[in-house]
Specification:
Order of helices and strands: EEHEHHEEE
Keywords: Heme, Iron, Metal-binding
Distance between the termini: 47 Å
InterPro entries: Cyt_B5-like_heme/steroid-bd (IPR001199), Cyt_B5-like_heme/steroid_sf (IPR036400), Cyt_B5_heme-BS (IPR018506)
CATH class of one domain: Alpha Beta
Helix content: 25-40%
CATH topology of one domain: Flavocytochrome B2, Chain A, domain 1
CATH architecture of one domain: Roll
CATH superfamily of one domain: Cytochrome b5-like heme/steroid binding domain
Family: Belongs to the cytochrome b5 family.
Strand content: 25-35%
Strand order of the largest sheet: 3-1-2-4
Radius of gyration: 19 Å
GO molecular function: heme binding; metal ion binding
Largest sheet: 4 strands, mixed
Protein name: Cytochrome b5 heme-binding domain-containing protein
C-alpha cells in the first residue's frame, strides 16, 4: 500500500495494521497523494519516527519542454490580490 506525502512515496503495507487511526484511512488513500489529509491529523514527529523506514521513493514530475506553458491572460495587480484581466 503506497502513499504519497509531500512528494515522498511510503510503503505502508506492513504499517497499515499498526496505524492508530485504523486500516481504512490508509487504504482509502492507497496510491494517492494524501499530504493534505496527513498533515490535518499528524505532526512532523510522526513522519520523523515512521517515515525513514517506510520511505521507498520520490515522485518525479517530468516536464516536457516541447509543450509550451499555457497561454494565460495578463495579471492585474490590485492591493495584495491578483486578478486576471477578463478583457484580454
Amino acid at each position: 500500500i503506497g502513499l504519497v506525502i509531500d512528494n515522498v512515496i511510503y510503503d505502508c503495507s506492513q504499517f497499515v495494521k499498526e496505524h492508530p487511526g485504523g486500516e481504512a484511512v490508509i487504504r482509502r488513500y492507497a496510491a494517492k497523494d494524501c499530504s493534505l489529509q496527513f498533515w490535518k491529523f499528524h505532526r512532523e514527529c510522526h513522519l520523523v519516527k515512521y517515515g525513514p523506514v517506510l520511505q521507498v521513493g520520490q515522485v518525479v514530475v517530468k516536464v516536457d519542454k516541447a509543450d509550451p506553458p499555457p497561454n494565460l491572460p495578463p495579471i492585474i495587480y490590485s492591493n495584495s490580490t491578483f486578478e486576471y484581466d477578463d478583457d484580454w
